[in-house]
Amino acid sequence: MTTVDLARAYLDQARIRLDLLAELRRRGAWNDVVRFAQEAVELALKALLRHAAIDPPKAHDVGPALLGAASRLPPAAAARCAEFARISTALAASRGPAFYGNEAAGVPASQLFGTAEADNAEQLARKVVEGVTTIMSAP
Fold first, then answer.
1. Which of 18, 25, 95, 125 gets the most CB atoms within 10 Å of its CB?
2. Which is nearest to 51 in space by CA: 69, 30, 29, 28?
3. Which residues neighbour 135 within 8 Å (Cβ) at sequence distance 6 or greater?
4. What pLDDT, on a 0 to 100 scale, did the predictor assign at position 1?
5. CA atoms within 13 A on the CB side of 66
6. Are 4 and 89 in contact (CB under 8 A)?
7. What is the mean predicted confidence (pLDDT) over 114-130?
8. Are 86 and 63 in contact (CB under 8 A)?
9. For the residues of 16-55, what is the DSSP string, one character each?
């Protein structure tokens, strides 16, 4: 499997996560919408790095690695690095609470997130996945 094949596979996985958001919304699983949106961003940004032949980090927040690699990315990707990194960092901060809740306070994840957080996370994830798709599709 080539680097380009891996990049495409990651991006396909990101799209699958986005497709699942409709079902999660239907069930009112707002915390899962946030978590899957974060995963979509993580996978899309790792796809972008792989597409540029850069080994992605084994971390959920890809933002710092993306910023560090900006000079080695295609111009269209480099121009969006700061925006994508900001989104990655913001959603990565919500990943743990969206999965585990606030264990110290005894609050489950399902009570920490509502429609507003889910809407925001989905919007950000779609922005990144669509942006990466466009960048990777360019000649």
1. 125
2. 69
3. 48, 51, 74, 76, 77, 80
4. 73
5. 29
6. no
7. 98
8. yes
9. HHHHHHHHHHHTT-HHHHHHHHHHHHHHHHHHHHHHTT-P
Tokens encoding 54: 């850069």
- Per-residue pLDDT tens for 21-38? 999 999 999 999 999 999
Measured CA to CA in angstroms, residue 133 lies from 23, 26, 32, 91, 106 at distances of 23, 26, 23, 19, 40
Q: How far is CA 86 from CA 29, 64, 92, 93, in A?
A: 25, 9, 10, 11
Q: For the whole model, what pTM was predicted?
A: 0.96
Angle at 93 between CA 66 and CA 77, to 5 degrees: 20
CA distance 14 to 8: 10
Is the distance from CB of 100 to CB of 78 less than 8 angstroms?
A: no
Helix axes 3-26, 30-51, angle to 10 degrees: 170
Residues β-bridged to residue 14? none
Long-range contact pairs involving 82-85 (C-beta distance under 8 Å, separation at least 24) = 84/41, 84/45, 84/48, 84/128, 84/131, 84/132
Percent of the chain clearing pLDDT 90 (strictly above) = 96
Mean pLDDT of the chain: 97
